Amino acid sequence: MEEKYGGDVLAGPGGGGGLGPVDVPSARLTKYIVLLCLTKFLKAVGLFESYDLLKAVHIVQFIFILKLGTAFFMVLFQKPFSSGKSITKHQWIKIFKHAVAGCIISLLWFFGLTLCGPLRTLLLFEHSDIVVISLLSVLFTSSGGGPAKGGVLLLVLALCCKVGFHTASRKLSIDVGGAKRLQALSHLVSVLLLCPWVIVLSVTTESKVESWFSLIMPFTTVIFFVMILDFYVDSVCSVKMEVSKCARYGSFPIFISALLFGNFWTHPITDQLRAMNKAAHQESTEHVLSGGVVVSAVFFILSANILSSPSKRGQKGTLVGYSPEGTPLYNFMGDAFQHSSQSIPRFIKESLKQILEENDSRQIFYFLCLNLLFTFVELFYGVLTNSLGLISDGFHMLFDCSALVMGLFAALMSRWKATRIFSYGYGRIEILSGFINGLFLMVIAFFVFMESVARLIDPPELDTHMLTPVSVGGLIVNLIGICAFSHAHNHNHGASQGSCHSSDHSHSHHMHGHSDHGHGHSHGSAGRGMNANMRGVFLHVLADTLGSIGVIVSTVLIEQFGWFIADPLCSLFIAVLIFLSVVPLIKDACQVLLLRLPPEYEKELHVALEKIQKIEGLISYRDPHFWRHSASVVAGTVHIQVTSDVLEQRIVQQVTGILKDAGVNNLTIQVEKEAYFQHMSGLSTGFHDVLAMTKQMESMKYYKDGTYIM
Amino acid sequence: MGTIHLFRKPQRSFFGKLFQEFRLVAADRRSWKILLFGVINLTCTGFLLMWCSSTNSIALTAYTYLTIFDLFSLITCLISYWVMMRKPNPVYSFGFERLEVLAVFASTVLAQLGALFILKESAERFLEQPEIHTGRLLVGTFVALSFNLFTMLSIRNKPFAYVSEAASTSWLQEHVADLSRSLCGIIPGLSSIFLPRMNPFVLIDLAGAFALCITYMLIEINNYFAVDTASAIAIALMTFGTMYPMSVYSGKVLLQTTPPHVIGQLDKLIREVSTLDGVLEVRNEHFWTLGFGSLAGSVHVRIRRDANEQMVLAHVTNRLYTLVSTLTVQIFKDDWIRPALLSGPVAANVLNFSDHHIIPMPSLKGTDDSNPVTSTPAKPSSPPPEFSFNTPGKHVSPVILLNTQTRPSGLGLNHGHTPYSSSLLNQGLGVPGIGATQGFRTGFTNMPSRYGTNNRIGQPKP
To answer: Which residues does the UniProt record annotate as the domain Cation efflux protein transmembrane (chain A) (predicted)?
Structure first.
C-alpha cells in the first residue's frame, strides 16, 4: 500500500512529461528491465502451458482453479484483512463489481486462447494499457491476420475491456489501499463467485481429466507465471520506470518468446518444459507459424515500440496555452478534452450535463436520442428481415440526424465564453448553423425534386407493403419532435428573451459601468425567430414530417387506386414546400451574416439617430453601423462630431442612453471634435490618410458653418 | 408559415431587382467571359448528369458535383464583380464585401453537403451494388476534367484564389506536397513545378479524374463494380478535405472573429496604445474582418481623468489605423462628472515628438490656412496641473463643468505645423514634474515590455 502511494508520487513527475531531467540513469534500471523480460518470457511459457491445460480442463474450472490459487497466494502475501485500513461496505460493493468484471475478462481471454491458440493470444492480448490507449487515440486499427476470426474479435474485445477495466480500477485501488490488496480481495471474491458455477459444472458434466493430481504441477506454474509473478513484477517495474518505457520493454520479449514458442512448442526440445506430457507427438498444426503471423508479430512489436514512445501530447497542450492567441483555437474538441481531466467518460458526462442545462440543447438532444433509437430499430429490423428499403431508410434517417447533431453542437457552443478570437462570444455560431441547416434543406429539396422529376418521366413500380408501418413510425417520431420544438419555439423565446436580457444587462454593466441608467426594454418582440439554429432544426423536423406524410398519402393512393404517378407528385410537392419554408430562414440568416441593419430595429434606430442629432452641442454623426451579432447581441458603432465646447463623456452618456433604448447593447461611440482632425492630420503619415482626413474636415466645416449660423 | 407571408411582399419586385442588378454586372466586359463559361458549364453539367444516369456510376456523379461547384464559383466571381460596383447603403452599412465571403462559404458548404449525400448514397450502394456501364464513363471524366481545368485556369476568381491562399492547407494538398517533396529529392529539376503550393481545386480535379480512370480500368478488366462506390467515397472525402479548410476560413470571417494571423500585430499595437500617456486601460477590443482582408474593429479606451480625450483619440486612431481600416474608438473616463480641474497641459506631451519632426506635411498647410481657428487644446496660459488622479471627490458638486478648452483663436497658429509641435514642446518642458516621466514613457513605446508597462493588456479581456 505504501509502495503504491510512493509509486504514484514517483510516477507523477515521470509520467507528467519532461518537467526536468527526471530520467533515472539507465544502469539502475537494467535489473528491472531484465526482471521484466524474464517475467514476460515466463508468462509466455505459462500461457502456452495453459493452452495445453485448457484442452483437458473446462474453461470455467480452469479459471476457478487459477483464481483460487492466485487468491490463496495473494492473500498469503498481502494479508489484506489484517493490514491496512478497514474496508467499508461501499468499497466491498465496488470490489465485488471489480471481481465480476475481472471474471468476465478472464473468461473472454481464456476462451479466446482456446480459439486462437497461445501465439495469437499473446500477440493480441499482451499489450500494455498505455499502448492500447495510444493505439485507440490514434485510431490505428490493426487487424491481426489469424484464421480464427471470432477468437480474434473476442480477444480484441477482451483487450479493450481489460484496458477500460484497469483504468476504472485505478481509482478504486487507491480507495481500497493499493492495487495489490485490491487484487487479492478481488481474486478472492471472484473465487467465491465462480464457485457455484464450477460446482454445477462438475456435477453435470463428466470431466475429461484422468487424474487431477497430475495437473497440480502445471496449474501451479500457470498460476505463478501468468498471474502472480507477472502482476508483481509489472507493478514494481511501473513504479520504478516510466510506464511507457515499461510497456516498450515488456512487449518486446513477450512477442519474441511467443514466436519462439510458437515454433518450438511441439518440438522435442521443449518437451522437458512441458509439464503435461502428451503421449505422442502428433503432428499438430496448432502451433504452426504462418508467414502472416510472423509478419504481424513483427509489426506488433514495431507498433508497440512506436506507440509506447512517450507522447508529446501533453507538452503540446501547454504550448498551445502559451501561444499568442491565449487559447487553443483550432480544435474545439481538443480544447474540451484538455479541460476535462483526460478521462473520456467524465468528458461525456460533463458535456451531457452542459447539454441538459439549457432548454434548446436539451430538446435537440432528446429528440436526437429518439431519432437515433428509431433509426437503429429500423436498421436492426431491416437487417433482420433483410429488407433493403428499411436499411436505406435507416441510412436516410442517419443522414438527417447529422443536421440535428450540428444543431446540438451549435447550441452547445453558443454558450461558450468569449475569447480573444471570438471577441463577441460564440453566439453567432447559432446563426451560422441555422444557415448551414437551411442550405442542407435546400440540397435535400433539390435532390428530392430531381428524383421526383426523374420518376415523373419514368414512374417505377413500387413495393408498398413495407412502407406504411415505417413511415407511420417516422411520422410519430417527427410529430413528437414538432410538438417539442414548436413548444420550445414559443416558450423558448420567452425564456431566452429573459435570459438574454439578464446577460445583456450584466454585459453592458460590465462595459459601461460608469454610465448607469435604465436599460430600455423596448425590444419586446424583437427576438422573434431570431434563434436561427432552432429554426433550422425545426424546419428539418418539419421537412421529415412532410416526407412521412407524403409517403403515407402516396402509399394510400397507390394501394387504393393504383396511381403510381402519385408518388413523384407527392415528392415534388414536398420538395417545393421544403424549399419555400427554408427561404425565409436563409434570407434572415444571410441578412445577419451580411451585417444588415436589424430589420426589427430599423424604425427604432432611425428614431434614435434623429434624436441623437438633436442633442445639444452635436454637429453630426457619421458611419453609423448597427448589426445583429447573435440572438442576444446587437452591436453598434457610431462616430459623432461635436462642437469643441461640450464634454465628450456627457455626449457619450446621452448617445448611449438613446441607443440602448433602441435596443443596441454593444456600443462603441467615438466622439470627435475639431481638435481630433487637427491631431490626426498632424499625425498621419500617409498621403491617403491625410487626404481622407482633409475630406472629413471639409465635411466638418460644412456642418460647422451650419452651427455658426445657428 | 407566417414567415413566408412576410416574405411575399418584397418578392414581387425581387426578380425585377435581380434582373436589374444582373444587367448592371453584365455591363462589365469582364463578366461576359464568366457568363459564357457559366452557359458552357450548364450544358456540360446537363450532359454529365445524363451520362451519370446512363452509366449508373456514383463516382461520376460525385465528380459531376465538382462541376456544379465550379458553377457556384463562377457565380461567386460574378458576385465579387457586383460587390465592387456597389456602395454601402444605410441598411447594409458595411457595404457588400461580405457577400463575397458568404458566397464562398455557401458554395463550399454546398459542395460538402453534396459530398455527404454521395457518402449516404454509397453507403446504400454497398448493400446492393448495381451494375455500372462503362460506356460514357471515361468520356464524361475527360469532359468534366478538361472543362474544370479550363475554368480554373482561365478565369481569375478573386475570392476563391484569396481563400485558397489564406486558408490552411487541406490534407490532400499536404499529401501531395509530401509526395512532391520526396520526388524533388530524386529529381531536383522538378522543384519549380511541384514545390509551390498546389491549387486545391486543380488538385482535386486531377485526383478525381485519376480515381475515375482507375474505376474504369477495374470495371473493364474484371467487372469489379464495387470500386465505383469506393472511388465515389474517395472523391467525396477528397471534396471534404479540400472544401473544409476554406469553409472554416470563410465561416470564421462570417462569425466576426479576429483572424489569427493578425493577432500578433494587433497585440503589439494595443500594447503601444496602452503605453500612450493618459491611457489607463484598453478593453472590449473587437476586431474582425469585414470582407477578405480589410479589418474592422472597435475598442474602448479608459483614460485618466486629466487626459485630453481628443489627443488620446487621435493617437489611438493613428496607431490602429495602420491595421484596422474601419475603426471606432470610444474614450471614457471614470468619474468624469467631477469638475475637471485640469486640462491639456499634462496630456499635451502625449505626442511623440519624433513623429512630428519627421513628417513633412505639404498638404496640411492649405487646410490649416482655411480654418485658422484650429488648434491644439494646449494652452500656455492654463493653470499648472494638480494631482488628482483617482481621488474621488465626493464632496464636490457635479454641476461645475469648467470649460478649459476655449478657442485659442488669437494665438496665431495659422502658419503650418511648426508652431503646433513647438508649442507642444513647450508644454512638455513647461511641466517638468509629471511631464518628464511621461515623455520618457512614451518615448520608448517600441519596447514596452522591457518596462513592464504592457501588463495591463497582457490578458484577454472578457
So the answer is: 364-594
Q: Is residue A13 part of a domain?
A: no
Contact check, Cβ <8 Å, B336/A701: no
B298–A593 C-beta distance less than 8 A? no
b/e per residue B256-272 (b: at least 16 CB within 10 A) = bbbbbeebeebbbbbbb
Question: B331 CA to chain A: closest CA distance, Å?
Answer: 7
> Rounded to an integer, what distance in angstroms lies between the CA atom of residue B110 and that of residue B114?
6
How close A676 gets to chain B, by Cα (Å)? 5
Residues 6+ apart with CB under 8 A from B346: B278, B306, B307, B385, B431, B434, B435, B438
Contact: A649, B106; criterion CB under 8 Å? no
Residues 6+ apart with CB under 8 A from A282: none
Q: Which residues of B touch A670 (CB under 8 A)?
A: 313, 328-331
Domain that holds residue A672: 599-698
What residue ranges of chain A have pLDDT lower than 50? 1-25, 138-148, 269-270, 272-286, 311-341, 490-529, 687, 702-710
pLDDT tens, position by position, A432-449: 999 999 999 999 888 888
Q: Which of B121, B252, B254 is the best mutation test for A, with the most CBs of A within 10 A?
A: B254
Chain B neighbors of A602, CB-CB under 8 A: 91
Question: For residue A673, which residues of chain B lie inside 8 Å, CB to CB?
Answer: 310
The percent of residues in chain A predicted with pLDDT above 90, rounded, is 1
CATH of the domain at A565: 1.20.1510.10
Minimal Cα distance from B313: which residue of A? Answer: A676
User: A413 and A367, same structural domain?
Assistant: yes
Model pLDDT for residues B327-350, shown as the tens digit of each residue: 889 988 877 666 545 444 444 444
Shared domain check, A583 and A462 = yes
* Contact of A196 with A37, CB cutoff 8 Å: no
Domain for residue A515, yes or no? no
Report d(CA A254, CA A265) in Å as an integer: 15
A603 and A590 in a common domain: no
CB contact under 8 A, B374 and A417: no
* A324 to B263: CB separation less than 8 angstroms, yes or no: yes
Helices (H), B12-136: 14-26, 30-55, 58-85, 97-127
In sequence order, what are the beta bridge partners of A30?
A: none
Domains of chain B from N-terminus onward: 14-255 (no CATH), 262-333 (3.30.70.1350)
Query: Cα separation of A378 and B118, whole Å?
Result: 21
Tell me what ipTM this predicted complex has: 0.72
Cβ pair B58, B232 in contact under 8 A: yes
Order of strands across the sheet with B295-303?
Answer: B279-289, B295-303, B324-333
Band of residue B103 on the pLDDT scale cut at 50, 70, 90: very high
Question: A55 and A91: one domain?
Answer: yes
Q: Indicate whether A14 belongs to any domain.
A: no
Nearest to A325 among B3, B263, B407 (CB): B263
pLDDT on residue B235: 93
Interchain CB contact of A329 with B (< 8 Å): yes
Cβ within 8 Å, pair B417-A682: yes
Do the chains contact at B314 and A683, CB–CB below 8 Å?
A: yes
For residue A683, the chain B residues in CB contact (below 8 A) are: 314-315, 318, 351, 355-356, 359
| Chain A residues touching B6 at Cβ < 8 A | 584
Q: How many domains does chain A have?
A: 3
Interface list for A 243-302 with B (CB within 8 A)? none
Cβ atoms A367, A386 nearer than 8 A: no
Q: At what angle do helices A388-413 and A467-511 cross, to 10 degrees?
A: 10
H or E element in which residue B186 lies: helix B171-186
B328 contacts A668? CB cut-off 8 A: yes
Instruction: Give yes or no: residues A481 and A439 share one domain.
Output: yes
